[in-house]
Amino acid sequence: MARSIVPIRTGEDVVRVRQEVRRFAVEAGLGLVDQTKIVTAASELARNTLDYGKGGEASMDIVQNGARRGVRIVFEDHGPGIADIELALKDGYTSGRGMGLGLGGARRLCNEFTIASTPGKGTTVTIARWK
Amino acid sequence: MDRIPILKLGEALLVTIQVDMHDRLAMALEEDLTARIVDHSAKGVLIDISALEIVDSFIGRTLANIAMIAKVLDADTVVVGMRPAVAITLVELGLSLPGVRTALNAERGMAMIKSRIDDAAMIATDEDEGGP
């Protein structure tokens, strides 16, 4: 399945990201619970991209590691960046209108989670869930 | 903008969320429900989420807000029909839905609301009669 790139500019785009990630998760052969986890994580991160990153994009791929298949999603924005990533990952930390579960919660729902951020340049979050 | 329909059923309000909600739609539901609880002096709100494939932190917060607002307005909220995969994911996400009562299906949820309405009616009758 070819890579899919979904721009994130509005709240409707967050829904589009959820639907597209679902399609990839099904294609990768993930079970229903794993599908739900990766779609939920993607929803949190897409919202972060929109609210804190001032918009950006999500690109997703089916990935293969030996016999294992999975889905990997990269969220990229060129917003203000995150000065203290450890703090941002803590439950209960929020600088906006959420519950402060976005980043930490998303990390718990994935098998892989990496975040890179440069203040003033933007943030990239990569997640993956394996079958 | 789309709105999620709210049905009136006696002294209860019934909401069936059948679309993948974006955040503004969830916020609109919160506002609409608040207005309708007051308009109809509703005693209960039943929210059916059986069609929802995910509940993320925003939707979860909206459900918790609705329950809190309804409580302040003297109405009970029961969320019904959560899918098992959604429940597992919610717990892992760290969302506990404070103050939100849940039931497995609409029938049980309605029974919870009805018993609350009946209790309230009984207390009102006792007061009218000046007690025993």
Verbal overview:
The complex is a heterodimer of chains A (131) and B (132). With 131 residues, chain A is an alpha+beta fold. Chain A has a single domain (4-130), classed as 2-Layer Sandwich (Heat Shock Protein 90), CATH 3.30.565. Chain A has helices spanning 11-27, 32-51, 85-89, 102-108, and strands spanning 4-8, 56-65, 68-77, 112-118, 122-130. Chain A has a five-stranded antiparallel sheet with strand order 1-2-3-5-4, covered by helices on one side. The radius of gyration of chain A is 14 Å and the shape is globular. The mean pLDDT of chain A is 92. Chain B is α/β, with parallel strands linked by helices and 132 residues long. Chain B is 51% helix and 17% strand. A five-stranded mixed sheet of chain B has the order 1-2-3-4-5, with helices on both faces. In chain B, α1 packs parallel to α2 (57-72). The N and C termini of chain B lie far apart (54 Å). The mean pLDDT of chain B is 92. The A-B interface holds A 10-12, 14-15, 18-19, 22, 32-33, 35-37, 39-40, 43-44, 47, 91, 98-99, 101-102, 104-105, 108-109 and B 20-25, 53-58, 60-61, 83-86, 88-89, 92-95.
Provide a concise account of the structure shown.
Chain A has 131 residues and is an alpha+beta fold. Chain A has helices spanning 11-27, 32-51, 85-89, 102-108, and strands spanning 4-8, 56-65, 68-77, 112-118, 122-130. Chain B has one domain (6-128): Transcription Regulator spoIIAA (2-Layer Sandwich), CATH 3.30.750.
